[in-house]
Amino acid sequence: MEDFLTPVFICGILFVGMPWIILHYVTKWKQAPKITPEDENLLDEMFNLARRLEDRLNTVERIVAADNPDWKPAAPASHPNDYEISRRN
């Protein structure tokens, strides 16, 4: 009896189980949300805004450094709260 069940079990796994798992995850992958053109435009706008804000900050730091030679800009912060703490000191 075991000689009959083992091949049936292996064939069931190979021809039913494996394709079911593969097709299940292919279907999930195709249903996953994709970036829309509107999202891509929003990301581009946010990137441009961040670049402009960084340029403005660099300009302000240059102006302050020119007015006050002892002033040193703070090191880039690894955490947003670190930036505020370093600016207070």
- The count of strands amounts to 0
Which parts are unreliable, with pLDDT below 50 for 5 consecutive residues or more?
85-89
Shape: elongated
Mean pLDDT: 84
Largest sheet: none
> Which percent band covers the strand fraction?
under 5%
Count of helical stretches: 3
Assign the structural class, choosing from mainly alpha, mainly beta, alpha/beta, alpha+beta, or little secondary structure. Answer: mainly alpha
Q: H/E order of the elements?
A: HHH
Query: Could you give the distance between the termini?
Result: 81 Å
What's the helical proportion of residues?
over 70%
As a whole number of angstroms, the C-alpha radius of gyration is: 29 Å
Structural features, described:
With 89 residues, this protein is mainly α. It has helices spanning 2-31, 37-67, 80-88. Mean pLDDT is 84; it is low at 85-89.
Give me a quick take on this structure.
The chain has 89 residues and is mainly alpha-helical.
List the helices and strands and how they pair.
Elements: H1 2-31, H2 37-67, H3 80-88
List keywords for this structure.
single chain, disordered C terminus, mainly alpha, elongated
